Predict the structure.
Amino acid sequence: MKTIVLTGAAGNIGSALRQGWSDGRYQLRLNDIKPLGEMAAHETLYIGDLRDAAFCSALLEGADAVVHMAGIGTDLELELLIEHNLKALLGVYQAARTHSVRMIYASSNHAIGMYATDIDIDEYAAVRPDSLYGISKVWGEGIARLYFDKHGVESVCLRIGSFEAEPFERRHLHTWLSHRDMQHLAECCIDAPQVGFQIMYGVSANTQRWWQQSDNPIGYQPQSNAEEFAARIAAISSRGGPLAEQFQGGGFASADYSNTK
Ligand SMILES: NC(=O)c1ccc[n+]([C@@H]2O[C@H](COP(=O)([O-])OP(=O)(O)OC[C@H]3O[C@@H](n4cnc5c(N)ncnc54)[C@H](O)[C@@H]3O)[C@@H](O)[C@H]2O)c1
C-alpha cells in the first residue's frame, strides 16, 4: 500500500480528501498546524509547521507521494504568502529531493487569472497571475519545474479552479471542481507510473470550461459538469463586481484594478 503525505489536512480540500480516503486505500500521514482529531488505523498524525526543514524531512522520509494542500489559499499579506507559500514549499521540495518523493502541488487558476473570459487556454499558456497570491503559485510551479529539471523530483502542479460541493455563482459554470473530481485527480497523480513535470487544470468536465488540457499523462477523466446547475446559478453574478466577469480570475483579478489603457 502506498504511503501518502497529505499536508493541509485540516483545510477545505485536505479534509475532503481525507474523508474520501477513509476506506484505507492509502497509508496517510496527515499534516497541518491545526488539530486533526482522532486518527483511524491507516492514518498517522504529523502536526507541525512546514517551515521547519527537519520536520519536513521526517514527514516525507519513506513516503511515495505528497499531496501538498497546505498554504495560504487566498490573497493575504505578502509576509504570510512568503512564509507559507514560498518558504514552506521550498522546504517540502528539499525534503522531496532528499527522499525521492513525488509531489502533487496545489497551484491555482490565479496563476493565469488575468486571461480574458472570452478565450480558452491550455496548460502551456504563459502565466498571467492576477494577484500576489497568484504570483505565489507561479513561484510554486517554478520550484516544481526546477526540482524536476535539476534533481529529477516528479511533480504534478494542479491549477485548481473552484473546489465546492456545488457551484453557486455564474463563474463556477467555468471553474467548478467537484469533490469527486478532485479526489479522482489526486488519485491519478498518485497512481500514474510516471508523471515527470506536468501542469493539470483542476476543473470538472464543465461544458463552459475555459481551461483545456492538451496533455493528460495521468488519465484524469472528470465527470461532474456545472452546467447541470446552470438554471439556478447563471443569473448569480460573480463576486468582485462587473470587472470580475471580464477575467478568468474573477474577483482576484478585479481587486485593486486600475488599468485604464
Ligand atoms: N479551495 C479552492 O477552491 C482552491 C482553488 C485554487 C487553489 N487552491 C489551493 O489548494 C490548497 C488547499 O486549499 P484549501 O481551500 O483547502 O485551503 P485551506 O486554507 O482551507 O487549507 C490550508 C491548510 O494549510 C494549513 N497550513 C498553512 N500553512 C501551513 C504550514 N506552514 N504548515 C502546515 N500547515 C499549514 C492551514 O492550517 C490549513 O488547514 C491551497 O494551497 C490553495 O491555495 C484551493
Notes: The chain has a mean pLDDT of 97.
